[in-house]
Amino acid sequence: xxxxxxxxxxxxxxxxxxxxxxxxxxxxxxxxxxxxxxxxxxxxxxxxxxxxxxxxxxxxxxxxxxxxxxxxxxxxxxxxxx
Length: 82
Ligand SMILES: [Zn+2]
Fold this sequence. Notes:
Elements: E1 8-10, E2 17-19, E3 23-29, H1 32-37, E4 42-48, H2 52-58, H3 68-81
The protein binds zinc ion (ZN).
The site of zinc ion (ZN) has 8 residues, from strand 4.
């Protein structure tokens, strides 16, 4: 049985583990090959509904590409390759 008082989810924007009432879900298109394979499919992006930055990032336009920090890290590592 699921106890909603102890149920937690990880925010896909900031990465924090939050209690169930603090997490909402945004539906975003998939990117690249996944979108071509499953054009009707959507990412369920979990985000903190009490943190404006998380909510804004979760509802950005376009496909969901992953957490902002991870995107930044990938950009940086590409620059390092030269
Ligand atoms: Zn968050």
